[in-house]
Amino acid sequence: MFQPLPTPQEMARWDELTIEKFGLLPEVLMENASREALYVLKERFSSLKGKSALIFAGSGNNGGDAFSLARHLANQEVKVMVLHSKWQKEYLNTTAGYYLNLAKKMDIPLMHLPEYNMDFLPQVDIVVDGLLGTGFKGTLRKEYISWIKKINKLGKQAFVLALDIPSGLDGETGRPSPIAVVADVTITFEEAKLGLFLPPAKPYIGQLKVGKIGIPKKIKQENPCTHYALTSKILDLISPPPATLHKGQAGHVLVVGGSTGLTGAPQLAALGALRIGAGLVTIACPKPLASQVKGIFPEIMLLPLQGEEEFLTSKDFELLEKHLSRFKAVVFGPGMGRDSRTLELLKKYLQLEHPPTVFDADSLYFFATDPSLINLSKQKDKILFTPHPGEMARFFNTTAEEINQARAQFASQFVNKYQVSLILKGAATIIAHPNRPLYISPFATPNLALGGSGDILAGIIGGLLAQNYSLVEASCLGVFVHGLTGEKLAQIYPYRGNLAQEIAHHLPLVIGEYKHAKS
Fold it and tell me: What is the phi/psi pair of residue 163, to 5°?
């Protein structure tokens, strides 16, 4: 269900343990890496014989992979030239130097890159980027910026293969520094590094392939990484419903929300819960707005609360508390508004023994204004926050742009500080739980970027919680299905324009298509 996404530091640790503790020679790892790169090129070209390749080799292990690949390509009768970033003598006594010497023995042309006249680069069929590896951080030096620009210029006509990561990308954040190689394919080794999976890297990596190089499974299990990608196997958590299922067994969700001008949000959350399979959904809303909140959906039940205002107040607490035991999960906040009198209802709810609760939308405004509210709950293990970057930014007194620059770091900081679960929405949504790794969605889908999409997600998770999925399962499964449905809608509406409620309506169809394809 989860694909490891090591940081560069974690990958380096795996390499170190494989070599020092397990005893596998570094030359073996490098040979395996170069063979995986060769397989990519063989897959791309029906025949490599007679092709030409220009290989850029850096100073570290990435350069060693490049030297080794040069040998394999020469054996395939490819006309190869290697441009290396440091003097040949500086590679002495390194693993990269071992493969440089093998290339020399095969009479492969080797040129010192800083001395080579880059104005007269030959036009070639293949360009291999082995300049900088996943450990690169900071800002590129001028000469690297120049070299990367030349690679990208060659890439307008040649096939560009990046080894492990396109040079210039930060292996942890995926951001260019300030530019990066634009690859047709990136062959990353052993596991996809965290930065390659994050949205800033998307324009640079092309097709991402993972080539196994022989890191022992035992080492990865004993030294787990801190980030994992969600995979389609998470959908295996969904079992076919028994023929004898009745609505009570499928769970009852309560959505608490609605205020003047915001009556659609709780309705959308309710639709998300119903479409993911909840047996019953009730919306607790201000009495004067009940008909608007229900809308045209007879499947949605209502709990009109006692106050006469068009927003929720502490006057509504008594009736809400009286009915709370009927529900297996609660979604609190869609369309709730930000009136100060609504805050009193939230405070009282937090002090109750409550079912697993998804706090979304306007409820997050109150928490961000006064984070000490979180401590009113004695059931933090039953709480999930679902902010978008703007809502998250209020907790840290920063901007949505700053949050998106370091999404994983902010998510980790949040759950460690407040000890509640979190879904940080957006491209490559992050799921964080206290004392667990971060889980990252593989989807970055513009068709989900519209008002109401988050309400649907909150309802999906509430519906899964009501069906007895754990908080971890419900959050990961909900995020994945939501993203997968966004991809389905992108096929139907390639230029966006879909409605939020269509996300909900397509949920069972998308799940059914996956199950049918698998069977």
Answer: -90, 115
